[in-house]
From TrEMBL, chain A:
Domain ABC transporter, residue spans: 7-239
Organism superkingdom: Bacteria
UniProtKB keywords: Amino-acid transport, ATP-binding, Cell membrane, Membrane, Nucleotide-binding, Transport
GO molecular function annotation: ABC-type amino acid transporter activity; ATP binding; ATP hydrolysis activity
Protein name, UniProt field: Amino acid ABC transporter ATP-binding protein
TrEMBL record, chain B:
Protein name listed in UniProt: Amino acid ABC transporter permease
PROSITE patterns listed in its UniProt record: ABC_TM1
GO biological process: amino acid transport
Family to which the UniProt record says this protein belongs: Belongs to the binding-protein-dependent transport system permease family. HisMQ subfamily.
Domain ABC transmembrane type-1: 15-204
Subcellular location: Cell inner membrane; Cell membrane
Length: 249, 227
């Protein structure tokens, strides 16, 4: 059983306003695996993540989560098993950190207040926010906000977590703490699909890199090979551009 | 000055008897307006196109015609089609229907000023739309709308005086009665103005207190933006 992929994305297509953004994307994610998705802006990376949990339902193709097809019927219980971490954090402004992490546990998983608190505290401790339980999101730094939103995802005990550019909204000096938490998660065996150009994470924690362009996967492979000997010219061009950007900033 | 105090001693109790009617009318109208506003705002923000258009028409009609015309329409006009309301009910309905249009617009502004990402985050964790509305949108929009809602409550409190036009013995009409009995209109309307000021002051202070008590960092009100 444990050798079937935890997530199987089959030939996903998505069209927005007559433009096909995803042109048939397929890949698998094994239990405990971390994959990182890179690619130029507007290539459909965010759309791909949103198709997986049907925030934007794909026009065609299928998503299979641990043997179960992800479909509108029972979607809320399926979404509860797929964590989602956003670039802009999307913490609930009116709730303190602890309540942010408790809310969906109570609403969706039906956990008792006591149980939800216990799980929230565990995950907040894990991301280093045990001393910020009563703080409101506006009182946190960007890095702390993102760590809180990771704790919020983790407390749902998801089968995998999708990250959409989790460090892109952060000041450069704050990306480190978030990348550190993500590396620890990957090492602890969490299954992760990460859209990010954070090379530190890719090299240290990703099992595989997926390069997307124009709505298709151009190539994928372990970071050691993809970064050093990419098969496609487009991949190496993109990687070169990335390194240039990094040197400039 | 001593004359005025003496005048007040004599006539204040009679005027204060009108406070019950005025405040009662206001409270019924505000509650009616609030409930209807929730339906309207749902129709304007979340419902299908026909319902949206219907709610929009409602808001435009009630904001675009004089309150007094609405009141006469209900009290004097509706009996022609067999709907006869006593003055209190007619006034409460008229003010309530009118207030609903304004309250709905304030709620809508507050809801639409919220960043959409939080709704998406809630749905992504498996919360239903209802749960997200109840636990995220409503508490945030509710906090943001308090200053405008407070303003609306005060406007409606003053509007209750139009019930005088259909013969309801509320505060303003009592002041007029005192004036005709004593021929001291200046004193009579000064007294009633003081009573209105105290009432609106209480409403403003109470809602100000609620706003301060529920305030959360990062969730400032959108006050001042709407006209
Ligand atoms: N809800 C939407 N409605 C219409 N068009 C959309 C929508 N979401 C995305 N698109 C379009 O789909 C294309 C892919 O967008 P997407 O956000 O998935 O790209 P991305 O790879 O995540 O880019 P970035 O690196 O800039 O985040 C873009 O051209 C975008 O304009
Ligand atoms: Mg994106």
């Amino acid at each position: 059983m444990s050798d079937t992929p935890i997530l199987s994305v089959r030939n996903i297509r998505k069209t927005y306003g007559g433009i096909e953004v995803l042109k048939g994307v397929s890949f698998d994610l094994e239990r405990g695996q971390s994959k990182i998705v890179i690619g130029p802006s507007g290539t459909g990376k965010s759309t791909l993540l949103r198709c997986i949990n049907l925030l934007s339902p794909p026009d065609d193709g299928s998503v299979i989560l641990d043997g179960v097809t992800v479909e509108q019927k029972g979607i809320n219980q399926l979404r509860a098993q797929i964590g989602f971490v956003f670039q802009e954090f999307n913490l609930f402004t009116h709730l303190c950190v602890l309540d942010n992490v408790r809310l969906a546990q109570r609403n969706v998983l039906g956990r008792s207040r006591h149980e939800a608190t216990r799980r929230a505290m565990e995950e907040l401790e894990r991301v280093g926010l045990a001393d910020k339980l009563d703080a409101y999101p506006a009182e946190l730094s960007g890095g702390q906000k993102q760590r809180a939103s990771i704790a919020r995802a983790l407390a749902m005990d998801p089968k995998l977590i999708l990250f959409d550019e989790p460090t892109s909204a952060l000041d450069p000096e704050l990306t480190g703490e978030v990348v550190q938490v993500m590396k620890e998660l990957a090492n602890a065996g969490m299954t992760m699909l990460v859209v990010s150009h954070e090379m530190g994470f890719a090299k240290a924690a990703a099992d595989e890199v997926i390069f997307m362009e124009g709505g298709v996967i151009v190539e994928q492979g372990p970071p050691s090979t993809l970064f050093t000997q990419p098969e496609h010219a487009r991949t190496s061009q993109f990687l070169q551009m990335l390194t240039h950007e990094h040197h400039e900033t | 000055m001593t004359d005025f105090i003496e005048f007040g001693r004599t006539w204040m109790p009679f005027l204060l008897e009108g406070v019950g009617v005025t405040v009662g009318l206001w409270a019924v109208a505000m509650v009616l307006g609030f409930c209807l506003a929730l339906v309207l705002v749902w129709a304007r923000v979340y419902a299908s196109k026909p319902l949206y258009l219907l709610a929009t028409l409602y808001v435009e009609v009630f904001r675009g015609t004089p309150m007094l015309v609405q009141l006469f329409f209900i009290y004097l006009g509706l009996p022609e089609i067999g709907i006869v309301l006593d003055p209190f009910t007619a006034a409460a309905v008229a003010i309530g229907l009118n207030s609903a249009a304004y309250q709905a617009e304030y709620f809508r502004g507050a809801i639409q000023s919220l960043p959409s990402g939080q709704m998406i985050a809630a749905r992504a964790m498996g919360m239903s739309r209802f749960q997200a509305l109840r636990d995220i949108i409503l508490p945030q929009a509710g906090r943001r709308v308090i200053p405008q809602w407070s303003n609306e409550a005060i406007v409606e409190l003053k509007y209750t005086s139009i019930a005088y036009a259909i013969g309801l013995t509320e505060l303003t009409s009592r002041a007029e009665q005192v004036g005709y009995q004593t021929f001291q209109f200046l004193e009579a309307f000064t007294l009633v103005a003081i009573i209105y000021l105290v009432l609106t002051g209480i409403v403003a202070q109470t809602l100000d207190f609620v706003e301060k008590r529920t305030r959360v960092p990062g969730l400032t009100n959108s006050g001042g933006k709407m006209s």
